[in-house]
Write a structure and sequence with these properties.
Elements lengths: L1 H22 L1 H4 L8 H6 L3 H17 L1 H15 L8 H19 L3 H28 L28 H12 L7 E6 L6 H13 L4 E6 L7 H17 L6 H13 L15 H15 L2 E6 L7 H14 L5 E7 L1 H11 L6 H6 L2 E4 L5 H19 L3 H8 L2 H9 L6 H18 L5 H13 L1 H9 L1 H4 L15 H18 L5 H11 L1 H8 L8 H6 L6 H4 L1 H4 L9 H13 L5 H14 L3 H10 L6 H14 L15 H14 L4 H11 L3 H10 L9 H6 L2 H18 L4 H4 L4 H10 L6 H15 L3 H9 L16 H5 L4 H14 L4 H12 L3
Parallel strand pairs: 1-4, 1-5, 2-3, 3-4
């Protein structure tokens, strides 16, 4: 009430200001010099005339849209057979009366202008302001609490993928061909997601071309309580009509109608002091009759309301169903409305709706084929918008249709469920599309939307779902016994998870498709290819490197994304033969500078199948010539060094080529990195384990040993290079493999290495201690006691010579207590 009063006072105040301004306009225009309007016009100062023209132009320019719309409304109103007075008649009467008075009485100039101009300007400014105010302050639409968003129903024929056009045509024909003017109420009944709103939108489109009907669109769900629903309904009716015709009295008629009917339960006062009920009803009916059109009133989303609000809507319909030429189309789920009203009102009976609805119409069942086509077109549109490649789409469609037909479409049973799923994908997939398998992500998001408990279980129990043996830290989850019991553990977990769940078979089938360990747990077989490399490059969720991306929906800022490595590989593959090595070198330099080189190596291993043959050859050349640029220092206790990883990467490349033996020998001859020489020979030994089967078969181990031993001697002995300085993080392996000749040392080989090391360490006590500290320990030593293995040490070095050096340095060299402890342990190791 206070808000209404404030708005009314504001309107009156501004109107008075406008009136007073126009009243004193003659004083500003020097009209006191003229005695009559005619005399004023005959002696008009051109400057004053120009001022009038400028003022008029400014007003027209500023209010052009409002004035044009006002003129259109007046023109439409003039075409009607007016039987009752309205505001337009009042304005016309006042203006004509004022001009008549001026003419008849021939008022003095000042009085004439002071009377005529205020009425003209005051009336115009008042109604321009009133029109602007009405357009700006529509009935308040207070949204409900929460942020639930409605589906986007279709609004045009070209979007109708479910074939509802014929049904809409029949409904339109029914409404427009009613042979009587009596009010008629149709109830369009359909369940949640059946497409009721889309049908109504298409029906409204039909009426857009019908000049014999006026469509009033009202959705009570947007308003917060019963009073707002009532006000907004009548506002929607009045504003729809007033948008085409000037019928200012319609609002007051509706207001009086509410007053005299009392509309129980809303605290509105019954007031018969102004008009009788029949008089008000006759006024409303006359206003409707003036239109000479049927008024089609659509009321949607009734089933979303609370019980009291539903009842208000139905009472409104009954209240308005007193007037001819009104046709109501009520859209709701009859089952839900009956349930809500029955829970709220114990005396409610289903016959209540039957008394209101004259023609119940059921939304037709959509053919499954139409739903399938809609889903398929939605997925295709999503893929097109995201730029999914043709190859990726082909892989996706090779597996997804069968899963959809057998396990998903029973859940995606109506258009709303499909939209709910597609809308989720529209939000989630763009954030991570380059980092995941499209198939796995669509299946996981299906679980997230429709089976959130299953989704949460996957997220919280990665050790159940991903193939943990491929993870570096799998041992952190379970002890050794877990591997043997894994099958039983997974099966028990899934069975418990799916107990008493609807569509448990469909969920289980989806889990089996995503996680081959689940399939293995139930059937003991796996239909999928069991290859870590293929699963990683395909970005499957079962691979530990990919699993968490599906839930984080992003790649950590400190990580190298799969998309980045794919772009790197593409740039290498597309580079010209002359520039490819340079491009590769710049790439490694770039990522080395960002501390991402280690990740780059890991990713190259995962995506090596994408490398062209020429690119692979160039990478082999770059790696063996620049291997020393990769650190041999290990980060932690379980991670390999960059040097080791790049060496393994190169050997993996070589293993996939044809001339394995020739390439290996060329690399051994050309590389400047002595630690790479040692690693290659060691890795070519089949007993070391691994999957480089072509290398094991083709490599001439003895020849490779000979090449390596010769180059090591030339570099370190003949070249007088200090292995401890040259390779601070790899000298142990170099000396051990060189000295043992990779398992079969000769006396000459031992002498070369032993003498070489002795020549370096004999003049440096601290370096000697570091050398001794790195030697093999005795495994049978008493607990807490350090002992060195004399046997293994003697396999390379002359033990007696180094033992004598240790005793000498213990006595003469300046060493710390801890360093002396190392020498003491070495001396005591001698039997």
């Amino acid at each position: 009430m206070t808000r209404k009063l404030n708005e009314f006072l504001r309107l009156i105040t501004l109107s008075i200001i406008a009136y007073l301004f126009s009243y004193f306009t003659p004083l500003l225009l020097e009209l006191p010099h003229a005695r009559t309007i005619a005399n004023y016009l005959n002696n008009l100062d051109l400057r004053i005339y120009a001022a009038f023209i400028i003022l008029e132009a400014v007003v027209i320019w500023h209010y052009w849209k409002q004035l044009a719309h006002l003129a259109n409304r007046i023109a439409n109103t003039c075409r009607l057979d007016i039987t009752v007075s309205n505001s337009f008649d009042d304005i016309t009467f006042v203006l004509l009366a004022t001009i008549s008075l001026l003419y008849d009485f021939k008022a003095p100039g000042l009085f004439a202008n002071a009377l005529l101009l205020p009425n003209i300007f005051g009336a115009l400014l008042f109604y321009i302001y009133r029109f602007t105010l009405c357009r700006a302050t529509v009935a308040p639409e207070v949204s409900r609490k929460g942020s639930e968003s409605k589906d986007e129903p279709i609004d045009s024929e070209d979007k109708d993928l479910l074939g509802r056009g014929s049904f809409v045509d029949k409904l339109y024909s029914l409404i427009t061909s009613l042979p009587f003017p009596d009010p008629y109420i149709i109830g369009l009944n359909g369940g949640w997601g059946d497409g009721k709103t889309s049908i109504i939108n298409l029906l409204k489109k039909r009426f857009e071309g019908n000049s014999e009907a006026i469509v009033v669109d009202f959705d009570p769900w947007y308003f917060r309580d019963e009073e707002e629903i009532i006000k907004s309904f009548f506002h929607a009716f009045e504003s729809t009509v007033s948008d085409k015709y000037w019928m200012g009295n319609l609002r007051s008629l509706f207001t009086n109608y509410l007053k005299v009917t009392g509309f129980s339960g809303l605290g509105m006062r019954i007031d018969f002091s102004r008009d009788s009920l029949k008089h008000v009803q006759d006024g409303i009916q006359d206003a409707i009759n003036q239109l000479k059109k049927d008024v089609i009133i659509f009321i949607d989303d009734i089933d979303r309301l609370e019980a009291k609000e539903m009842l208000v809507v139905f009472k409104l319909v009954r209240l308005m169903a007193k007037f001819q030429r009104l046709r109501f189309v009520l859209i709701f789920d009859a089952k839900r409305v009956s349930t809500v009203l029955a829970e709220r009102y114990k005396d409610f009976v289903p016959e209540y709706l039957e008394k209101i609805i004259q023609l119940p119409v059921q939304v037709p069942l959509v053919e499954q084929k139409c739903l399938d086509n809609f889903f398929d077109s939605s997925i295709s549109a999503l893929f097109s918008r995201l730029g999914i490649t043709e190859e990726t789409e082909k892989e996706f469609y090779s597996e997804f249709p069968l899963i959809y037909q057998m396990h998903m479409k029973r859940t995606l049973a109506n258009i709303r469920q499909i939209k709910r799923y597609i809308n989720s994908l529209n939000f989630t997939l763009p954030m991570i599309r380059e980092e995941v398998s499209i198939l796995d992500f669509l299946l996981l998001d299906f679980l997230r939307v429709f089976h959130p408990e299953i989704y949460t279980d996957i997220q919280r129990n990665p050790h159940i779902y991903q193939h943990f043996e491929w993870g570096e830290n799998s041992f952190l989850y379970y002890g050794g016994g877990y591997k043997q019991d894994r099958k039983a553990i997974i099966k028990a977990h899934i069975e418990k998870l799916l107990t008493d769940r609807q569509d448990s078979d469909g969920i289980k089938a989806i889990l089996e498709k995503m996680f081959f360990d689940v399939q293995y747990a139930f059937y003991g077989v796996m239909t999928a290819s069991f290859s870590p490399a293929s699963y990683r490059s395909a970005k499957r969720i079962s691979h530990p490197d990919c699993f968490y991306k599906y839930f984080a929906l992003q790649v950590a800022t400190s990580d190298l994304s799969d998309n980045q490595i794919e772009e790197v590989i593409l740039s290498w593959n597309n580079a010209s033969p002359d520039s490819r090595l340079t491009v590769i070198a710049k790439t490694f330099e770039f990522y080395r500078g960002k501390n991402l080189q280690s990740q780059l190596i890991d990713k190259l291993h995962d995506f090596k199948a994408s490398l062209k043959l020429d690119t692979t050859t160039a990478l082999i050349e770059y790696i063996h010539k620049n291997a020393r640029d990769f650190s041999a220092r290990r980060d932690g206790t379980i991670n390999l060094s960059d040097h080791t990883k790049i060496s393994f990467l190169m050997l993996g490349f070589i293993n996939n080529l044809e001339d394995v033996s020739g390439i290996l020998e060329k690399v051994m001859q050309d590389t400047p990195d002595m630690s790479l020489l040692v690693a290659i020979v060691l890795s070519c030994k089949e007993e070391r384990g691994g999957d480089w089967h072509k290398i094991y078969k083709a490599a001439d181990i003895e020849k490779l040993k000979s090449i390596a031993a010769k180059r090591l001697k030339e570099y370190f002995v003949d070249g007088n290079k200090n292995v401890f300085e040259e390779y601070p993080y790899g000298w142990e392996l170099i000396l051990y493999q060189w000295g043992t000749y990779w398992g079969k040392a000769t006396h000459e080989q031992r002498r070369i290495v032993s003498d070489y090391v002795l020549g370096i360490v004999k003049n440096s006590p601290k370096l000697f201690v570091e050398f001794i500290k790195a030697q093999p320990k005795k495994r049978t030593a008493p607990p807490g006691e350090l002992r060195f293995s004399v046997e293994e040490f003697s396999a390379i070095y002359h033990f007696e010579v180094f033992l004598a050096l240790a005793r000498s340095m213990f006595k003469t060299a300046k060493l710390s207590d801890s360093e002396k402890d190392i020498l003491t342990a070495f001396i005591r190791s001698y039997p």
